[in-house]
Amino acid sequence: MVLRAHAFALIGLDAVPVEVEVHVTTAPKLPTFTIVGLPDKALQEARARIRSAAACAGVPIHESAVLVNLAPAEVRKEGAGFDLPMALAILAGHGKVAAELVDEVAATGELAFDGRLRPVPGVLAVAEAAVRQGLRTLLCPEASAAEAALVPGCNPIGCATLGEAVRILNGEASPRPLRAVPPPAPPVVADLADVRGQPSARRCLEICAAGDHNLLMVGPPGVGKTMLARRLPGILPPLDDPLALLVTRIQSAAGTLEAGSGLVRVPPFRAPHHSATTAALVGGGSRIRPGEVTLATGGVLFLDELPEFRRDALEALRVPLEDGVVRISRVSGSVLLPARFALIAAMNPCPCGSPEPSACTCTRGRIEAYQRKASGPLLDRIDVGVRLGRPDPEVLHADRPEATAQVRERVLAARRRQAVRGVVNGRLPVDRLADLAEPDEEGRRMLQLAARRLLLSPRGVHRVLRVARTIADLAEEDEVRGCHVAEALALRLGSVA
Ligand SMILES: Nc1ncnc2c1ncn2[C@@H]1O[C@H](COP(=O)(O)OP(=O)(O)O)[C@@H](O)[C@H]1O
Ligand SMILES: [Mg+2]
Hints:
binds magnesium ion; elongated; 37% helix; 2 domains
């Protein structure tokens, strides 16, 4: 007899159904355990985990011949989430649980040698796919049940062990109620009041927070670039419903979703080290995994010491910066992942990092190469550039500057104005230029002049307009006027001037 169970393969952020077919011979001449249907290494190793876990659940299967087929055959199956559905079908083959009960539920989870169930990435996507298939009950690790419960129509049953899953299916134990896990502590974000001086950079940070614009900060070491960037999450608004669901799906698929977090409302802040590979930044590797650009979706990607990043890694950021998506292609197929974030970058004016231009020991050629490395691939996508100097020593001991809470109020007010219009300025796709209100006569003249004199590309003009719109929003004005365009133009050129 062929036994069936329902598993799911995670591909990008989505799960696709995989049917587990199991054939068991209980008194064979030769005990075997074979898995076919494009399993990866981790899945092949399920044989050892399932044998051991089954023995701990009181069902020795090492004397049987077990043949497992994962269909459809052409889909590559990865990871350990297939352990539980395979084990359930195999136990059904040994008469320990009714085959029709196993056939009625979806299941996911990794087995430990002692039979405990360990969480796997992507339970949210699995729950969605199961509901789409009409499978409302999902057997899953206890720690993942709350995540699955976020999906309407899904009835997750969290199990601590394989044995418990079998007892629940057999009606010998009742499913435990969904355990309320306390939400994780919100990340601690330092306050903007710590940053002395740097009024222009603070203004830029506020504009970028209000409109999701890309920012480049250039200045000598130790003047507060990193400090400012790390304080940005404090002035960002919480994620709205659709974005919260997307960010939760991303974190679920990446396996970084914290237990008890529910829908993630905190905008992500990703700060990869400059040694990051292209695969780490944009995603991929031998398996299709979300990269930093996807993990930063809905929030901020902070690239500190920008020119230290690998050139190919920076080049790879172009497409996601423009399109808000990234395509990862592998032999096994390609997936499109979201990659919509605000880029915040920081760099020194020259490679030696001297505090003053007069003390710089770099040759002109070296400085140019250093700046080109950062600006080449990205400059056209940077909306706001700002130069930071050393703050006056007196400023360091002056009164405390504005705190995060005050700046945040203004950012939230600007975002509310945008919400009424139905769009956040920085998120507007390029081909929806028409959605941006035309600036007034003076603003238009200025833009045309800039396009001609400064050789601003149409993309550049569009980006300036978006920033001007945000500046008007912060000023609580409906019309984009000449002064808003002027500030936006100045900011665009701020880091290169
Ligand atoms: N504008 C500033 N106001 C207050 N402290 C500052 C400022 N700039 C730098 N510092 C101090 O110097 C340290 C290093 O600043 P950092 O932001 O890392 O500099 P950068 O990234 O520009 O090299 C900070 O932790 C802080 O103690
Ligand atoms: Mg720094």
